[in-house]
Amino acid sequence: MPRSVTTATTLTVAATLAAPAVLAAVAAVAPAGPSERSTQPVAAAGERARPAEATEALVFGHRGASGYRPEHTLEAYRLAVAMGADYIEPDLVPTKDGVLVARHENEISGTTDVADHPEFAERRTTKTVDGVQYTGWFTEDFTLAELRTLRAVERIPATRQENTLYDGRYLVPTFDEVLALAKAESRRTGRTIGVAPETKHPSYFDSIGLSMEEPLVRSLRRAGLDRPGAPVVVQSFETANLRELDERTRVPLVQLVAGSGRPWDVVEAGGTTTYADLLTDEGLTEVATYAEWIGPDKNRLVPRAADGTLGAPTDVVARAHAAGLQVVPYTFRNENQFLPADLRVGTAPDDYGLAFEEYEVFFDLGVDGVFSDNPDTAVAARDEG
Asked: Per the database record, which ranges form the GP-PDE domain (predicted)?
């Protein structure tokens, strides 16, 4: 069944790159009078949703407002909404008892205080996930009740030292809680707040008997969100689980496209299709048979030159639109270390650079959305031009 994304109404947030913007966003949680954005219509039967050229680009709060709070916490998602994000983005992994929770990875030593819990010391182990070996603690070895005894911490403390102020304060949220938060924030702000869950490592979890598709769809249905026009988009770097979800749910799907390599389900099946192949005309046409969006590494749209500066844009956005797909690149961040060399300011990797100039390049390309760790910056770049 065709699906389309419901675009949220606008909350104008006075945002700058300075820290006071964060405080202002936290305080300004009730807009004085949101204006209605143009909304992409739901496709008629037998048609697929196509990009609406006049629709304002959407801002996806990447793991919440993860530039300012430990990622994948309800507080990070709330702050993203306060900063004007249209969608909040939880990465999903299952617990031992099959509950979907929001974590960047199933290995949680870098995003929780699990190492400080002696009662779980014996659960530290080594596993191979998508061909890569990891040592630590894994969500699939904990029940939800056990995970609830842990607290979130900043994943990249050397870069975002100020976020460590909030270490140990927040729980690991469930997907159901994220959906409930979006619904509550929609009522409170008068805007429709969308949710963009990403299924992490679905082939791996299938292999250990923790399939993700069924609990994801159940959660959407319980929340009344498995319907055309619902403010939900589901993402994956794999292809097989998106094809399965295409049969199970009526919400839009996003084929994520990494900067290199192949989807892991393709690797496991012995296939040769690369992420680059998905961006050929033939690949985009195929993706459009099961998804409505592509979510490419932003370097797929504007590559870096050999010296690390921004190179010449590719034609991926135009060709994706021609195939009926919308485009939401990842990930935009304010710190120098994540910016092109020609947009850095000073030499400190964790200082802010010329992030607005990077956004301008991508908005000028006609992208339909952006994933950003700093949603206030993304909103200001979009709204202020």
From this structure: 57-382
